[in-house]
Amino acid sequence: MILKVQLFGPLARTASCRVLDVEWPVAERACAVEVMHRLAEGNPMLRPLLTGARLAVNGQYAGPEDLVTESDELAVIAMVSGG
Amino acid sequence: MSAQVSILDGPLAASSPGAYGGGAVICFEGVVRPTEDGRPVEALDYEVYEPMAQHTLEQLAGQAVSRFGLLVVEVEHSRGRVPAGACSFRLRVTSSHRAAALEATAWFIDRMKQEAPIWKHAVWAGTTEVTP
Fold first, then answer.
1. How many angstroms separate the CA of residue B2 from the nearest CA in chain A?
2. How far apart are CA A61 and CA B42, in angstroms?
3. CATH architecture under which domain A2-77 falls
4. ipTM attached to this prediction
5. CA B42 to centroid of chain Cα atoms
6. Each residue of A33-49: pLDDT tens digit?
């Protein structure tokens, strides 16, 4: 399956895109912490920005072991700076 | 820099809506600074992940009400471009006593800056360059 992960802010600018695809074997369970690991492995230029980043699933911060599927809305939330 | 103090007769003009029966109202406004590290700023572009940002701010406002026993918390935040000198964030906290309102104001802003999926990018004066 293909997990589509949305990017914002400095992450999107560094990656020069708004969405990254993460390929995942259908037979393998995908949990939030593993998705973040795969993102870092596949995108070395993003690694410094992924430190301390969190995965949001369907608009809520996910716990490390929360499972995700292809139909979930995924987003990496890093280095926020509102206000 | 300047300091300004006015002693006026009678009630001061309301700076905002009523106090909802409270005894303390703190209104914090975040304003876009005209310079950043000495470099002139034309504006800030605010990028907001919606609706998550809305939900996160609502949750934080609700938590602030419970945690500090507040009467009302009102939050406004900009999206898109905000010119230097303009307000991009307004937090209005109403409580029975000042200590809770002051503490809640600092708490809310700290939490918002950690959790709300909002990013700002500087638009530098005299250039098309935008910095994350």
1. 24
2. 33
3. Roll (3.10)
4. 0.91
5. 20
6. 999 999 999 999 999 99
